[in-house]
Amino acid sequence: MKNLELENFGVQEMNAKEMQIANGGAGGGMIKKVLGYIGGAISDCAHGFVEGFLEGTR
After folding, report:
1. What pLDDT is stored for residue 38 in this prediction?
2. What share of the chain is helix, strand, coil (3-state, %, to 5)?
3. Which residue range is the domain that position 51 belongs to?
4. Closest C-alpha among 22, 41, 40, 20 to residue 30
5. pTM (2 decimals)?
6. Phi, psi at 24, each rounded to 5°
7. Domains in the chain: how many in total?
8. What sign does the dihedral 6-12-15-19 (CA atoms) show?
9. DSSP state of 10
10. Is residue 6 a contact partner of residue 14, using CB atoms and an 8 Å limit?
């Protein structure tokens, strides 16, 4: 099996930061957004539950 010499074609390795930039930076930012939406939905549900409970005790 032959080894393909990629250096002759101008191919370079990328580090993690360069890959994130090349891929649009969706890695960490997307995860933070999804967790933020989930946290907000849980907070809204808990608030509605408490409000309904308090309404029922009056």
Report:
1. 92
2. 70, 0, 30
3. 26-58
4. 20
5. 0.42
6. 90, 5
7. 1
8. negative
9. T
10. no
